[in-house]
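FORM 7B: Structural annotation worksheet

SECTION A. Query
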Amino acid sequence: MFGAVLVVIAGFGLAMMASRLAVRQAGKLAHGLSIPPFIIGVTFFAVGTDIPEIANSVMASLAGHGDLNVGDSIGSVVTQITLVLGLFPFLGGRFVVGRYRAVATSSLTIAALLIGAFLVADGDLTRLDAGLLVLTWAIATAALWRYVPPRSEPVVVVPGQRRVFHAVMVILGLLLVGVGAGAALKGLIELSTGLGVPEYLISFFDSSIGTSLPELVVDITALRRGERDLAFGDVTGSCLVDSSLSVGIGPLIAPTAVTAALAVRGAVAAISVMFLTSFVLWVRQKHDRWSGAFLLLLYAAVYVMLLA
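SECTION B. Predicted structure
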């Protein structure tokens, strides 16, 4: 049992460090981009920092453990919008949140979660189901690009350097993420078997924290550099990726069965916290320690809701 815990920690640690490498090098590849930071965060960085969840989705589906995929992806939505976003004001200071930013990505994420809950209600994630989830992410991303919010910060212009080197480093980073996620997956399966706890709950509460660490590390760094739109875009965009692309990418390759009751309960919990978070930020139009404390309490409440 102790060995399984060490494998999980080591696996997620490798995935986290490798994902940071991949994201950093991918940013350097983007030569001459002139895009608002919120859009960069909600699209490029959101997919980049979600590489551990995406890798876990593929690995879990190939291994026939659909609950580890859905539990980690939906659990990451809850973890990121409550725990990670809740820590922002305490680690990076307060900042203003425009009403568009407060509701745009959250509304699309809620829609994706509703679609996902409907699709998993029969206990299976087929290729058609997976394709619909990936398509949902693509449409939502296109909508965010189409309706770009007003700029509150200067556009980000990323300088180009040795492109071949950066491309190789991106590929290396992605490969290392896959290795780390695979190791962590094996450890989670052993933990679930040893403790007699459903795989879904293990992945929802435990692995989601590990796979959400890249968002926390990247976003706190961005906040401390004054790039608030980038950080907020990444954490909300990651929720959209997790609720659609991350859930669907694995079953698109290898369809899997899931525990319908737990998957639907998890989706309902995620929908609830997404709505409450966006409502609070929409009303207050700022994120400070009061709203941060509220989100941390929401995270604790989800534990009670799912474990009761």
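SECTION C. Observations
Strands lie at 95-96, 124-125, 256-257, 286-287. The chain has one domain: 2-307.

SECTION D. Sign-off
Analyst initials: ____
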